[in-house]
Specification:
By secondary structure, this protein is mainly α. The protein is built from 13 helices and 2 strands, in the order ααααββααααααααα. The longest helix is centred in the middle third of the chain and has 36 residues.
Length: 317
């Protein structure tokens, strides 16, 4: 177990190192740099002043030299300053990270609970009218665009019924628990409905396949209770492939909820990374993308641990 953990930590470090170089290189190849952008907005900026500024910030150095300097600073906890916010990157990143965690964790937990229940009900009576209704709901969740679903929810609950706010994170200076909860309901509901459909299909398919296996028929022949056959014997084995899909989706939610955060004006990681790339805020974009990579790697590691918990034949060695 210890050797496995050490090996996974080494793998994580190597992947982060490679990704940091790739992202830094891609961002460095983008046209323009912070000094060029600043010079475009300041009339009378001379080429000599621009050259001095680039020398001060190291922008006149080769790409590998700049990357090495950034990497050494990042290893010491210094990820640089955000050009658009004029603050250290971590200070800008923390509120967006917290907001995304609220949105991501709530929607992911609800999606897993709903998909487990619906997929299990659908698999126990495949081909029936209940299965048809659940399959229709799942296909609708997979097919409907997220932005359209967000608009429908806004029109229904914010414009029509006026139960919930349409966007934003609350009034200025008002960030109480109830106010934050009200502003999170619609974006969480949007992501939940978008993810529940695909999770339900995977759970249904895995359960139908598992319920037809020999060990399930043996358990029934020995007189095991139906609930024990379903939840103890079948469900644990069916969840092994489903956990992989859920783990990958968890990592995608971290930086991939851009459309939802934009529709509801939620300043989370997805929107922050998108805005930082458009504004050439290199340090903020690079750090945000690395955090997204780290979350994906952590989700995959959690999936490996879940494999061993679900199936005793799998050992972490």
């Amino acid at each position: 177990m210890t050797a496995y953990l050490v090996w996974r930590l080494i793998q994580t470090a190597v992947v982060l190192l490679v990704m940091s170089f790739v992202i830094y290189g891609l961002i460095g190849l983008m046209p323009g740099d912070p000094v060029d952008i600043m010079a475009a907005s300041i009339p009378g900026m001379t080429p000599e002043v621009m050259a001095n500024l680039k020398a001060i910030y190291g922008l006149d150095q080769p790409l590998m030299t700049r990357y090495a300097r950034w990497l050494m600073a990042a290893l010491g906890g210094d990820f640089g300053y955000s050009r658009t916010h004029s603050l250290p990157v971590l200070q800008v990143l923390a509120p967006a990270l917290l907001q995304t965690c609220k949105l991501m964790v709530a929607s992911f937990v609800l999606s897993v609970i709903l998909s487990m229940a619906l997929g299990l009900i659908s698999a126990l009576r495949p081909g029936g009218w209940v299965d048809s209704i659940i399959s229709l709901f799942a296909f609708a969740g997979i097919s409907v665009p997220v932005f359209w679903l967000a608009l429908i929810l806004i029109l229904a609950f914010a414009v029509g019924l006026q139960w919930l706010p349409a966007s934003g994170m609350g009034r200025v200076g008002d960030y109480g628990f109830w106010d934050q909860t009200r502003h999170l309901v619609l974006p969480v509901l949007t992501l939940t409905l978008a993810n529940t459909g695909q999770f339900t299909r995977y759970v249904r398919a895995a359960m139908i396949e598992t319920l037809q296996m020999d060990f399930v028929r043996t358990a029934r022949a020995k007189g095991a209770a139906p609930s024990r056959v379903v939840f103890v014997h079948a469900l644990r084995n069916a969840m092994v492939p489903v956990v992989t899909i859920m783990a990958l989706s968890f990592g995608t939610l971290f930086s991939g909820a851009l459309v939802t955060e934009t529709m509801f004006a939620q300043m989370g990681m997805g929107k922050m990374i998108y805005d930082s790339i458009l504004s050439n805020d290199f340090n903020l974009a690079l750090t945000g993308l690395l955090f997204a990579t780290l979350v994906t790697l952590i989700a995959n590691f959690a999936a490996d641990i879940a494999y061993a918990l679900l199936d005793p034949r799998i050992t972490l060695q």
